[in-house]
Each structure stands twice: as structure tokens, then as C-alpha cells.
Amino acid sequence: MVQIISPAEAAAMIKPGNRLAIGGFLAVGAPETIIDAMVENGNKDLHIIVIASDWEDRGVGKLVVNKMVKSAQVSHMGTNKAIQAQMNAGEIDIELVPQGTLMERVRAFGAGLGGILTPTGLGTIVAEGKQIITLEGKDYLLETAIPSDFALIKAHKADKLGNLTYRKTARNSNPIMAMAGKITIAEVDEIVEIGELDPEEVITPGIFVNYLILAKEN
Amino acid sequence: MALDKRAMIGARIAKEFKDGDYVNLGIGLPTEAANHIPEGINVIFQSENGLLGAGPKPPEGQEDKDMINAGGGYITCIPGASFFDSATSFAIIRGSHIDATVLGALQVDQEGNLANWLIPGKMIPGMGGAMDLVTGAKKVIVAMEHCDKYGKSKILKKCTLPLTAKGKVNLIITDMAVIEVCAEGLYLREIAAGLTLENVIQATEAELIIPERVNTF
């Protein structure tokens, strides 16, 4: 069953060394309430799996600025100078992953796959050290699944079974991250009773969700 | 870049689109193309953060915090738009469902290689969606200034920066020329009005193949 918890309770579950798949794209659709609770809680030595390192004062950028992140798998860091400075200072390990590849590697973990084959990155430094597999005359990179301990996501509405709906471009990586967490915590704008969501509008089935948190008013 | 140059490049990019095309425009100069779509041509813009049918910027005060484009700017969507998750977005991109993508570049070379995501030791923004876009789009158009701010050619015999993708560029549109990438090399197709062939050859490090007829734009 899905439990409704406080942001502080969520932050307290996350331990040093944990791998966090966090939803959002340039902080739109990022679980800001959970992130703020983590900043307050002072979580440390985190590994984050994110599309972008967001802005220094929005989204996962806040975890970086507060030196809570020791390593990241990320596709874009151009909007956050802090992460680039920490990388140059050797304070944070970065693996840059093409965005489409990142999504499929995360999805693979959630879907019980060991990895995926993609042409993206062939002939570039992304291919270095990776196995190339040729199928019917075409080359693909073998990209392995990315595991995570927690998925921290933002959705619009949830029912008490954890079924989730999203809003506009705030959906982005959230449904993918939701599948991939050993434990998935969803921050939502509204929690409704079972039966109030039309099954046709549910994007993430509640089976993927363990905990719900109500977003702060924003 | 001067506004008239941006508009000129934008207008030339827009001529590449056919009615009904699905197009992804990169951040910066490529977005200029959206302002020059010819009358009677309907193009549907994809934004890789999860939208087909991206529309213009909303009027001030009507921004929706959940409606952004891939550059983080507020946008609207047109009738017939759809929202989807990031894996679906990149299935669209990588799976060759996008008719054309337009990207900026740091360097392009005569084998159609593109470098636009990394200057070692200097600029490390990450590739974002660029590698997938260049790998998967049916047509890859590079839009950029012909030379860098030091006046050096960005169209090279061989890229020296880390590649975004190998051999994927189809067309290069700059403030000086339109260049098609073919198996034999770079064909100079058009030069900007007011320039001579010699101007373009001088400004291009790569070998250019000059066909009998070179148009102006």
C-alpha cells in the first residue's frame, strides 16, 4: 500500500551513498518539496541520476550547491556553474550520458532489462570502453541499465493507490524515473480518493509508487 | 550576431521544411527559423522535453510554470499538440520520426562530422539531447556563423573537438553559404548575396566542391 509521508520523513530515509533517480527537466517537474527537505536534513554523499543539473536555486541544483552530491549521471549541466566548478575541483564525479540513452538505461532497470543497444554515441567519446554489437550490418553501443535506490519524482495528482497524472511538460522524465526506483517517492499537488482518477488519465500506475508527499504551495 | 544575419540564416533554414514536417530546432540561432516559415507550410515543432506542437512564447503574465521548451523558456502549444515522457520523446528522435533537426555547431568537417558539445578544459555543458538528435533525425541541418569570433573557419577538413556524431550532417547553413554534405565531400550550393565565391573559399578551411551553378540567397 502507498503511504502518505512528510517531506522530512522522506529525506530521513535517504542514506549516504544512495543512488537517486530524480525527475524533472531544467527544474520543471522536479520534486522541489522533497529536495528542500533533503537540503534541510543535510543528506550527504549522494549519487544523482538526472536529465540536467538544473539551476543553482531550483531543482537538483540546490543539492549540488549545498555539496550533497558526490557523483552524477547527467546529460546537461550548462545551466549550473556550481556543478562544473565542483567537477573541475575534483569534488564530484560526472558521467555525461546522452539524454535519450540516459532515459533508456533508467527505463531498462525499471523494466528488468540488463541494458539497451543504441546507435547514439557511436564514433564519439561516449563509446569509449563500451562494447559495440553489430546486428544485421548496423552497429550499436551496448549501454547498461542504471540502477537506483530511490526515485524522487513530481506528478500532478495521485490517488491513494499511487496512480499518477502529470501536467504538460512537467511530465518529462518522471514516469521513467518512477519505474526505476527500488523505492519511489512521488511528490504531488493533490491527493484524491481511489476512483476519482479516470483510469485513462493515469500515466504512472500506482504499482510503481511507494510513498506520496504533498507538494508545498507554490 | 547582427539581427539581419540571424534573420537571413533563419529564413534560409525555413526553406528546407516541407508542409507537414516534424522539426526539432536547437537552442539559439536555429530557433530563428520558426519566425520565417513560408505561408502555406505547416511545420510541427518538437521540444525534446516532451511536446509535439510547440507554439510561440506566451504573452507576459500568461506563462504556465509547467510549459517550457528544451531551453527552459516559457512556451505555448498549438491545437493538436501532445505531451509525452522523455523516453517517448527520444524514441521519436532516435527512431527517425523527426523529419529535420537544426543545431548549432562549434565545428563541422568535410566528412559530415559535428562537434557541438564540449571544449575540453573550458566548456563542459554536456550533450543533452544533441547526440540522439543528430543520430536519429532524417535530415541534420547545422546552422551557425561561418567563422568563429577570431575569424577562423568553423568548417574544417577534420574536427579537432570531441564529436557529437560521426558523418551525420546533411546541410550547413551559415551567414556566408549553404553547403551540402555528400559522399564526395562538401558541395557549395549557395552563397550569401553580396559575397563572391572567393570570399567563401577564403573563409572555409575544408575543401569545397564548386559545381557549375552556385545560387545566391
Entry summary:
Chain A is an alpha/beta fold and 218 residues long.
Kindly report the name of the CATH homologous superfamily of chain A.
Answer: Glutaconate Coenzyme A-transferase
The helix/strand class of chain A is alpha/beta
The N- to C-terminal Cα distance of chain A equals: 28 Å
**Mean pLDDT of chain A, rounded to whole units?**
97
Quickly count the domains of chain A: 1
The coarse overall form of chain B would be globular
CA distance, first residue to last residue of chain B? 18 Å
Q: Number of helical runs of chain A?
A: 6
Structural Rg of chain B: 17 Å
Give the helix level of chain A as a range of percent: 10-25%
How many beta-strand segments of chain B?
14
Summarize the helix and strand pattern of chain B as letters. Answer: HEEEEHEEEHEEEEEHEE
CATH topology of chain B: Glutaconate Coenzyme A-transferase
Question: Biggest protein-protein interface?
Answer: A-B, 44 and 41 residues
Strand content of chain A: 25-35%
Give unreliable regions of chain A as ranges.
none
Structurally, the number of domains of chain B stands at 1
Strand proportion of chain B, as a percent range, falls in 25-35%
What's the CATH architecture name of chain B? 3-Layer(aba) Sandwich
Task: Describe the fold and architecture.
By secondary structure, chain A is an alpha/beta fold. Chain A has 6 helices and 12 strands. The model of chain A has no long low-confidence stretch (mean pLDDT 97). With 217 residues, chain B is an alpha/beta fold. Helices cover 16% and strands 25% of the residues of chain B. Chain B has helices spanning 3-14, 86-94, 130-136, 197-202, and strands spanning 22-25, 44-47, 51-54, 77-83, 100-103, 107-109, 114-115, 139-143, 155-156, 171-173, 177-182, 185-191, 208-209, 215-216. In chain B, the strands form 2 sheets. In chain B, strands 1, 2, 3, 4, 5, 8, 10, 11, 12, 13 and 14 form an 11-stranded mixed sheet that branches. In chain B, strands 7-6-9 form a 3-stranded mixed sheet, with no helix packed on it. At the A-B interface, strand 4, helix 5 and helix 6 of A face helix 2 and helix 3 of B.
